[in-house]
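stuck on this fold:
=====
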Amino acid sequence: MGLSTHVLDTMHGCPAAGMGVILMTTQHSNGVHIAQRVKQFVLNADGRNPDGPLYDNASLRVGTYRLVFDVAAYFTARGVALPQPPFLDQVSLDFGIAHADQHYHVPLLVSPWSYSTYRGS
């Protein structure tokens, strides 16, 4: 299965269809944190990547990654009046893949005021 994500809008009780997401690989080099964009996509009606897994098992590598979720733009597009600047603009989740042969699912539960994540199955 590789790597996947799923976003649920806890304010409206539904998948976060239309939210923009960026996937990056990250690494530390001489004390500097370097991130490289892998792909950018918009979540489908189910709150998932429309192309399926972000990486399949054959492509997933041990290392560190970042998912960046465009939370404020999503809620603004839904008609939510956010303060300026918004409390949450983009949510970045940095995580590690220790076993490339396992499935890593990174869900995000989000509202304009809070978020939660965990390693799903």
Q: What stands out?
A: The longest strand covers residues 32-42. The mean pLDDT is 96.
